[in-house]
Amino acid sequence: MTKGTVQGVIANMVTLKVDGPVKQGEICYIETGGDRLMSEVIKVIGADVYVQVFESTRGLKVGAPAEFTGHMLEVQLAPGMLSKNFDGLQNDLDKMEGVFLKRGQYTDPLDRERLWDFEPLAKVGDTVQASDWLGKVEENSQPLKIMVPFQMEGTAKVKSIVAAGQYKVDDTIAVLTLENGDELKVNMIQHWPVKFAMTNYKQKPRPFKLLETGVRTIDTFNPIVEGGTGFIPGPFGTGKTVLQHAISKQAEADIVIIAACGERANEVVEIFTEFPELVDPHTGRKLMERTIIIANTSNMPVAAREASVYTAMTMAEYYRSMGLRVLLMADSTSRWAQALREMSNRMEELPGPDAFPMDLGALVANFYGRAGYVYLNNGEVGSITFIGTVSPAGGNLKEPVTENTKKVARCFYALEQERADKKRYPAVNPIDSYSKYLEYPEFAEYISKKLGDQWINKVLDLKTRMQRGKEIAEQINILGDDGVPVDYHETFWKSEVIDFVLLQQDAFDEVDAVSSLERQEEIMDVVTEICEHDFQFSNFLDVIDYFKKLINLCKQMNYSQFKSEQYEDYKRQIRETLEGM
Amino acid sequence: MATAFQKVYTKISQITKATCSLKATGVGYDELATINGKLAQVVKIAGDDVTLQVFEGTGGIPTNAEVVFLGKAPSLKVSDQLAGRFFNAYGHPIDGGPEIEGKDVEIGGPSVNPVRRRQPSELIATGIAGIDLNNTLVSGQKIPFFADPDQPFNEVMAMVALRAKADKIILGGMGMTNDDYYFFRNTFSNAGALDRIISFMNTTEDPAVERLLIPDMALTAAEYFAVEKHEKVLVLLTDMTSYADSLSIVSNRMDQIPSKDSMPGSLYSDLAKIYEKAVQFPEEAGGGSITIIAVTTLSGGDITHAVPDNTGYITEGQLYLRRDSDIGKVIVDPFRSLSRLKQLVAGKKTRKDHSQVMNAAIRLYSDAANAKTKLENGFDLTDYDNRCLDFAKEYGKRLLAIDVDLDTTEMLDVTWQLFQKYFKLEEVNIKRELTDQYWKNN
Question: pTM of the predicted model, to two decimals?
Answer without folding.
Answer: 0.92
